Amino acid sequence: MRNFDEDNITQAVLDRLSGCTDPRMRRISEALVRHLHAFVKEIEPSEEEWAGAITFLTRTGQMCSDTRQEFILLSDTLGVSMLVDAINHRFDEGATQTTVLGPFYVEEARDFPLGAHIAHESDGPGLIVEGTIEDSRGNPIAGALIETWHADDRGFYDVQRDTGKSALDMRARFHTDQEGRFWYRSVVPAAYPIPNDGPVGAMLDAQGRHPFRPAHVHFKLSAPGFETIVTHVFIDGDPYLDSDVVFGVKDALITNLSRIEGRVSPGGHEVESRTSLIAYRFVLPDKTIS
Ligand code: BEZ
Ligand code: FE
């Protein structure tokens, strides 16, 4: 076939996929072609605009490094990461709600004993995090793995420092005790702008959007026989809770940051004076067989 025009080119490309033997690949390719062509037909880009779009994607790739993932930022800021998250975590109501992983997760964080102080390079206001991990029937899950990470009181992650991944800080791995409890000491994290000195930052500017995320602590929770939960706990009262740049906030994940009076936390742990508390009860859904 020849002589392609606005009216016949979409079908011609779809026909060209008829030899694809992997049904999932074929379905994805067909949907990509249909939606991409519909998008172009809707916006009717000038050739300069289309070249600009290609430059944008090229720069997005070029911005990526070991410690910077511009494509994750693009997916997050366009709401695609939260959409993929919602589709893949249709858990029962009682389960802890999930949210974006984000670009600052580091797999090779260190194991710490319960109670450890995990902020070594920051002298921000003191924090104790006290959590429990339960199953959907309310039984504690002993030995569950907690991976946690957060920004400092100025809104920066360790990997954004000059040291990159060589000096990990404010991130750790713990295991729950026999009662499904975990606790650790750190500093109170601040709200922060996502990295906005690249193409995604320029896109947010052009769209008239701010780059901020409300203050939060990240958790990845896993245990044999249970679904892994990737989530955050957000601090109530943060001015960005209703305009999170990556659409990650859910009411059930917001908790008070309370100031502990005296030198013992509600969980019975000794703390410095003026320490704040984040307490949260996590519920892991049973593994679904798929
Ligand atoms: C984060 O919470 O670490 C994050 C999530 C999405 C984009 C940027 C940062
Ligand atoms: Fe974060």
Structure overview:
- The chain is α+β, with helices and mostly antiparallel strands.
- The chain is 24% helix and 20% strand.
- The protein folds into two domains: 1-44, no CATH class; 92-194 and 208-284, Sandwich (Protocatechuate 3,4-Dioxygenase, subunit A).
- It has six helices and eleven strands.
- The protein has a five-stranded mixed sheet with strand order 3-2-7-8-9, with no helix packed on it. It has a four-stranded mixed sheet with strand order 4-1-11-10, with no helix packed on it. A two-stranded antiparallel ribbon has the order 5-6.
- The model has no long low-confidence stretch (mean pLDDT 95).
- The structure holds benzoic acid and fe (iii) ion.
- Residues 73, 76, 100, 102-104, 194, 213, 246 line the site of benzoic acid.
Produce a short descriptive summary.
It is built from six helices and eleven strands. With 290 residues, it is α+β, with helices and mostly antiparallel strands.
